[in-house]
UniProtKB/TrEMBL annotation:
The name this protein goes by in its record: WDR64 protein
Superkingdom classification of source: Eukaryota
Matches recorded under SUPFAM superfamilies: WD40 repeat-like (SSF50978)
Transmembrane portions of the chain: none
Record bears the keyword RNA-binding: no
Keywords: Repeat
UniProt xrefs under InterPro entries: WD-EF-hand_domain (IPR051242), WD40/YVTN_repeat-like_dom_sf (IPR015943), WD40_repeat_dom_sf (IPR036322)
Gene that specifies this protein: Wdr64_0
């Protein structure tokens, strides 16, 4: 109860701080503001906020909140944003206890076992709802599978074959493999294999630098999967793999290696140049029965079309955005695609 009272007092002081800052920024934009000792700059705003809420707020959330007020003082941000929280449609009827839990007791579950070393970062994270686990890929070559409970059971796949960094990952739902791409290779990891040392396949070489990867979900449950990839020259690739592709005898050179190598030339891998710059994201949108890809180029920034367009030369549906598109997502409920440049 005392914690709730203290929090309400701190919140009231924070809201007063925001009101003063909005008034200040509004006067500044109209040229009526005169600087004085009560001026609220970023350092003062940050220090005051951290004094009020302590470690419950993070630097990046304070910075984002401050920037929002500076850029648009006429639209007051919601206070949960300072904690990195956003109110949903049903939050208005939440009980006081639940609201208190969001702010006073973290509901996040932290994985205490380190899966990446220093100077390494996570480059891809994919949820696999049907199997109740999550796949992550680190830049320096660690692929990890976490179970639903996120307990001790997880698997590692270290890729130290060359200095190429992993750019992204996904999961092949029918073949039950993890797929990842580096600058010059495609990695396929059999996380179920009993032999941990011989559970990786590498397709190489790729002529261009691969930047993103995504799988095409299917409902036929056949023993094959289709993979979409994008590179730094604007090409989008289509690769279909079956169980037969993994039946191979290791060569003498591979007996000492963690991997089994496949020649990229042995695969039928259609590709089509759809963009004039890097393909930074690719995704198959099942609800639309289309694939989508985006690029940082101002022309042909976003493409949305049937996957068959990768195997012919018919025109594709596309649109252009100044300075390109870096990210996109589809909302089935609203039936809209949102892009970010």
């Amino acid at each position: 109860a005392l914690e709730l009272i203290d929090f309400k007092n701190a919140l009231e002081q924070f809201q007063n701080l925001v009101e003063k800052m909005i008034i200040q920024k509004t006067k500044e934009s109209s040229g009526l503001y005169t600087k004085d000792d009560d001026e609220i700059d970023y350092n003062k705003f940050c220090t005051t906020t951290q004094t009020l809420f302590g470690p419950a707020v993070k630097d990046q959330n304070i910075q984002a909140f401050f920037r929002k007020i500076v850029n648009n003082p006429g639209e007051k941000p919601e206070w949960p944003e300072i904690f990195g929280c956003f109110l949903g449609e049903g939050d208005g009827t939440a009980s006081p206890l639940k609201e208190g839990m969001v702010l006073l007791v973290s509901e996040k579950r932290q994985i205490t076992h380190s899966v990446v070393k220093r100077k390494d970062v996570i480059k891809g994270i994919v949820k696999v709802p049907l199997l109740h686990f999550t796949v992550t890929a680190s830049q320096r070559g660690v692929l990890t599978v976490f179970s639903k409970q996120q307990i001790l059971l997880y698997f590692h796949f270290y890729f130290h074959q060359d200095t190429a960094w992993i750019a992204g990952c996904d999961f092949l739902p029918n073949l039950k493999y993890v797929v990842a791409v580096t600058e010059s290779t495609i990695i396929l990891w059999d996380y179920k294999a009993k032999e941990r040392e011989k559970n990786g396949f590498v397709i190489k070489p790729m002529k261009n630098c691969l930047l993103c990867v995504s799988t095409v979900p299917t409902s036929d449950h056949m023993a094959k999967d289709t993979i979409l990839m994008g590179d730094d020259k604007g090409y989008v690739y289509l690769l279909t793999m079956t169980n037969d592709d993994f039946i191979m005898k290791p060569s003498e050179a591979e007996k000492e290696s963690q991997f089994r190598f496949m020649d990229s030339e042995s695969f039928n891998m259609p590709k089509r140049k759809l963009h004039d710059d890097w393909v930074v994201k690719i995704k198959y949108i099942s609800a639309l029965k289309c694939f989508a890809s985006c690029s940082t180029h101002s022309i042909s920034s976003f493409v949305l079309d049937d996957i068959k367009r990768l195997e012919d030369n018919l025109p594709v549906k596309e649109f252009s955005v100044p300075k390109g598109v870096n990210a996109f997502t589809y909302c089935g409920k609203a039936k809209v695609i949102v892009t970010g440049g």
